[in-house]
Amino acid sequence: MKHPSQSKTRSSSHKAKYTSLTPPPRWRKPSPLVFVALLIGIAFFVHGLWISELTPARLWRGIFRLSDFLGQALPPNPKRLGSIIRATLETFEMALVGTVFGALLSLPLSILAAKNTTPHPWWFSVSRSFVTLLRVIPDLIWGLIFIIVVGLGPAAGIMAITMDVMGFCGKFFAERIEEIEPGPIEALRAIGASEVSIIAGAIFPATLPSFVASTLFSLESSIRSAVVLGLVGAGGIGVELSTSMQLLRYDEALMVIIVIFVVVLLVEEVSSWIRKMII
Amino acid sequence: MLSLAVHQLSKHYLNGTAALTDVSFVAQPGEGIVLLGANGSGKSTLLRCIVGLESLSSGSIQVGNAAIETATQSQLRSLRRQVGMVFQKFNLVNSLSAFHNVLQGALGRSKGPRYWFSATAPKLERERAMHCLERVKLAHIAQQRVDTLSGGQQQRVAIARMLMQDPGLLLVDEPVASLDPKAGREVMDLLWEIVRERQLTVVCTLHQLDLARDYADRIIGLRQGQVHIDIPAQQITNHQLNWLYEASQPIQDAQLLA
How far B169 CA sits from the closest chain A CA (Å)? Predict the structure, then answer.
């Protein structure tokens, strides 16, 4: 009985107060920190624009050069189509092998790097930092490092892609494992299952669809990086492309670009089709 | 069937909450105990302590001849093999088939990758899993993913998994709280049939007082982490049962209702 009257007085007083209040200001003065950060950002932007000398006159001249290039490139020259396709397949295989290795190695890595499955906090921080290290080094630099280690050719490309995929999949797999429901794990633990059996029996079945989806994403990006890795000599179509460009055989280069385009598109189509099937 | 002895068990969480205080009781082999108590009275914590999923703050728990509080990790695992558990939310692995979930009941006694997949498990265990599913009358849906089954069916799959494990002591945590009354009765009937035919010692938490009275040999009432009632089921009065819930209701709730 007390409640209605109480709530009434409260709401009316609330209303009276509300009308006397002024709305908050539309703009707030940025804090000094934000202000300085903004200034630094603007300075970098302006300086970057200045050193690029991206002037309208240059763009205008560029259009003529582009038409020059296209004139020499068209029609694409299919004379070496056989070896181009072979090299593109090599690029695809580099990406596939590297992605499979990377995804498989990510499985144990992600178990160590997930808070709920790591055997010890120490393992957690070491494996998380390792995954971050893999990711902050760009794939091209991994490629250059492995060219020194194993020499020119697809082996270096595969190893570079493996590192890249581990950096990506290790993080995503671990985050997926951390989201898992604790119930089934607890049930298997109560049965007396070993930790390895729990991982194989409850964790992987629940996370597998998302693991496959992440792996397919990284396969798509691996194909693109495998092409670029070829430019520095790590095997595949990139070598062909850079040779054609340097010898000014633009018609051949265009053929290479078309084949790459078709293969990347095919892989993306197939992988998105697989993803739809499993989810 | 295993005996269970809980002696002066206390469990405090790091934030200072006392979940259990000085809980003692002994379950004879083959005895059916129902634990009653309001939400937060410590029932689930007690079960989790018995199977070693929570550490004890003080006191001791003896399952058969083994002591929980001093067990090493591997002793704890072999001890858990003999303690079956059935959960309120079933805790099945959703993306696997009913058959595979039942097969996982063998994971405690068998090591090695063969047991991880239903395709590679030994013939004997696969047949046993099928028998366990048949016992809960679900052999016809062995291949279905468990997340496509109804709640009552999922709980029966969980019971089959427990059968596959072949425990001597059974801990059951509100087995019918997520089910409608009819499915709940069916699950309780089935569970108790199995308990009796295997002569399992069972500790089962419940919220339904009529179910408690129908199935239990003995009723233990917990209130705020302490044992307040411990008598044979036929002797318990409605007054005692109601008191367990009413008296422990927080005061703000009572005011809101008035």
Answer: 12
Q: Distances in Å between the alpha carbon of A109 and those of A130, A158, B242?
A: 9, 19, 53
Determine, for residues A194 and B83 on separate chains, whether the beta-carbon distance falls below 8 Å.
no
Query: Taking CA atoms, what residue in A is nearest to B255?
Result: A3
Chain A residues whose beta carbon lies within 8 Å of the beta carbon of residue B116: 197, 200-201
Instruction: Name residues 77-116 of chain B within 8 A of A (Cβ).
Output: 77-85, 87, 89-96, 104-105, 107-109, 111, 113, 115-116
Q: Is-contact B54 B10, C-beta < 8 A?
A: no
Where do the domains of chain B lie, and which CATH numbers do they carry?
A: 1-82+200-258 (3.40.50.300)
> Omega before A25 cis (within 30°)?
no
Q: What is the pLDDT of residues A225-259, one digit of tens each?
A: 888 888 888 777 888 888 888 888 888 888 888 88
Q: Which residues of A137-174 are buried (b: 16+ CB within 10 A; e: fewer)?
A: eebbebbbebbeeeeebbbbbbbbbbbbbbbbbbbbbb
CB of B247 within 8 Å of a chain A CB? The answer is no
- Say whether A200 and B95 touch across the interface (CB within 8 A): no
Question: Which candidate from B83, B92, B111 shows the least CB-CB separation from A190?
Answer: B83
Interface touch B87/A187, C-beta < 8 Å: yes
Complex ipTM over 0.95: no
- Interface contact A184-B95, CB threshold 8 A: no
Domain A81-278 maps to which CATH number in 3.10.20.90, 1.10.3720.10, 3.40.50.10420, 3.30.720.120? 1.10.3720.10
Adjacent-strand bridge partners of B6 = B25, B61
The whole-model pTM stands at 0.71
Other CB atoms closer than 10 Å to residue B49's CB: what's the count? 25
DSSP per-residue letters across B16-63? S-EEEEEEEEEE-TT-EEEEE--TTSSHHHHHHHHTTSS--SEEEEEE
- Give the pLDDT confidence of B192-251 residue by residue, as tens digits: 999 998 899 999 998 888 888 889 999 999 888 888 889 888 888 888 877 777 754 454
What B189-196 contacts at long range (C-beta under 8 Å, 24+ apart), as own/partner pairs, is B190/B136, B190/B156, B190/B159, B191/B86, B191/B159, B192/B32, B194/B135, B194/B159, B194/B163, B195/B32, B195/B170
Q: Which of B109, B116, B171 sits opposite A200 (nearest CB)?
A: B116
Structure token digits, residue B239? 């007054």
The residues spanned by each domain of chain A are 81-278
Q: How far is B107 from chain A (nearest CA, A)?
A: 5
State the Cα angle at B58 between B56 and B61, rounded to 5°.
65
The residues pairing with B5 across neighbouring beta strands, listed in sequence order, are B26, B62
Q: Which residues of B are less than 8 Å from A191 in CB distance?
A: 80-81, 84-85, 104-105, 107-108, 161, 165
Answer whether A208 sits within 8 Å of B95, measured CB to CB. yes
